Amino acid sequence: MPGQSRFAELEPLLERVSKPIQYVGGELNSTIKDWDCGGFGPDGEDLTVRWALMYPDAYEIGLPNQGVMILYEVLNERADALAERTYAVWPDMEALMRAEGFAQVTVDGHRAVREFDVFGISFSTELGYTNFLNALDLSGIALHAADRGADEPIIIVGGHAAFNPEPIADFIDAAIVGDGEQAVLQVTDVIAQWKASGRPGGREELLRRLAQTGNVYVPSFYDVSYLPDGRIRRVAPIESGVPWRIAKNTVMDLDEWPYPKQPLVPLAEAVHERMSVEIFRGCTRGCRFCQAGMITRPVRERTITGVGEMVERGLAATGFEEVGLLSLSSADHSEIAGITKGLADRYEGEQVGLSLPSTRVDAFNIDLANELTRNGRRSGLTFAPEGGSERLRKVINKMVSEQDLIDTVAAAYGAGWRQVKLYFMCGLPTETDEDVLQIADLAKRVIDTGRSVSGRRDIRCTVSIGGFVPKAHTPFQWAGQLGAEETDARLAKLREAIRADRKYASAIGFRYHDGQPGIIEGLLSRGDRRVGRVIEHVWRGGGRFDGWREYFSYENWVAACEAELPAYGIDLGWYTTRERGETEVLPWDHIDSGLDKEWLWADWQDALDETEQDDCRWTPCFDCGVCPQLGTHIQIGPTGKQLLPLTVV
């Protein structure tokens, strides 16, 4: 019978794998609903819509993911729907599953993923694509969408990587672009109506109905043609009633969506063990490298009272002792001072710590930092200048001067902090060796400043560097990527510059990612449908967990490109280190993020001219296109309200 628990078959495998707890389920606030919770129609029609939700990485990474957690709760609140979770299995478990013929199951009801109506996968990074293919295969679901039968789930992807779904177009049935809360409910409605009417037209008709909503992308209904030189000629619908461009889903008024209300508490160790609240969504700082900031516009703040109520409810439901105030730039919330002071006052003496993600240099102040640490421990501070030189920060629109950074760290060290972490990128457009070497000079100046204002020698600064990867729907989507060898050579020079001076060498930590994973991420982030053959080739060759250093194999990816791409007259460099022209049709042009392509090109030219762009939250609109095109608007405070007293029911 469909929907039966497979735990009796799973249990004997658990004693033979590492971290068996990650496959058991039963976390605090998890949900197992009756398989037939939606009931049946007058002629016996199955009216329940069932979702298996996956974050395509290990349990410890996937369980804290806010996106999946929110959708899981939103769907399970519906009486006629159920949602369960699954994650990527480690290689030891995969080997046993294949040997024993045991299919991928959920961690909630241990039900076979293949028996659900929808298999939904959330991609925050493209390096999860091989795990996705592995999950399909382990579930007994046909790898290619064209080969799936009526009894197999609809495969729907979402998350930031879904803004260019073309590299995995052959493997998915549909993609949801943008915010998921309302979108999954809309999809559930469409499936429920199709089921209630007797499933007319089968799988293809259901996909047609989803595509005709205008904001669900069904790749099989679009044809891609190419020019002789390998560039795309055009992407065009081949079905009537299917839109030329797919609209982004945008949730307005976050207070109406206070999720998760009952956050999941992991059974095994996870990367984040805290109760998190998204205090606003979107960012208009305009950092030209930042896909997240571009595709999540406009800015929508949760009110100070909404934040307070979510924190109160979430702490009561979980028992966590830390609250993360999340967004792309949390210190920019118009009521951040009131939020942090109100929360610190509310939980004083209760050992509840507050944390912000990486803080902008120009948004930091000591009062804010003191409120964040009043009830918790004082750890290091993290700032992200991103570019090593002031010239480069103008290119990327990170409007922070060297003196701004020095003034900020002086205030921090003077107020008792001993550690500061600085995050940079290597390989940014127009970057030179000198731009990168200035990171060493900046780090040394930070140490000198800390020693001077604190009068102490135990001052630390950690320099962390990631490789720049051009992303779709950003002004840098046309940029050529720095090659892996060039990236490594530039980082080697920086490492030597930091280590050469004994006065600073022991005080400056240096962490970096080599250039090879970034090149593969670049291939996947700006690839088209032809890249799907490369992904499949790597997966069939054993590729898994490409986001993990110990499993990633650059050589396997290069070999796959050499095997699959020459048939099209292109290669790995064509997708990565090649600069695009203004008129080139990009693989994601039919996905509407709301941003005008003409505006993005103009901003790319401003970058090359080292011209900065203001934040439109506080200045007149500069016509990026999002608000008029999507019928949205910026939602910011202040509301004039206080966080206390809380009125949680």
Provide a descriptive summary of the structure in words.
- By secondary structure, the protein is α/β, with parallel strands linked by helices.
- 34% of the residues lie in helices and 13% in strands.
- It has 22 helices and 19 strands.
- It has a 6-stranded mixed sheet. A 4-stranded parallel sheet has the order 15-16-17-18, covered by helices on one side.
- Strand 16, helix 14 (433-454) and strand 17 (460-467) form a beta-alpha-beta unit.
- Helix 10 packs parallel to helix 11 and helix 14 (433-454) runs parallel beside helix 15.
- The longest helix is centred in the last third of the chain and has 22 residues, at 433-454.
- It is globular, with a radius of gyration of 25 Å.
- The model has no long low-confidence stretch (mean pLDDT 95).
Question: Quick summary of this structure?
Answer:
The protein is an alpha/beta fold. It comes from Nostocoides veronense.
Q: What layout of secondary structure does this protein have?
A:
Elements lengths: L6 H8 L34 E7 L3 H4 L3 H11 L4 E7 L3 H10 L17 E5 L6 H11 L14 E5 L15 E3 L4 H16 L5 H10 L4 E2 L4 E5 L5 E6 L8 E2 L27 E4 L1 E2 L9 H5 L4 E2 L2 H15 L3 E5 L9 H11 L6 E3 L10 H8 L7 E6 L3 H6 L6 H13 L4 E8 L6 H22 L5 E8 L16 H16 L2 H4 L2 E5 L2 H11 L5 H10 L13 H11 L7 H4 L15 E2 L4 H12 L17 H5 L19
Parallel strand pairs: 1-2, 1-3, 3-4, 4-5, 9-19, 10-13, 13-14, 15-16, 16-17, 17-18
Antiparallel strand pairs: 5-6, 7-8, 11-12
Helix pairs in contact: 5-18, 9-10, 10-11, 13-14, 14-15, 15-17, 18-19
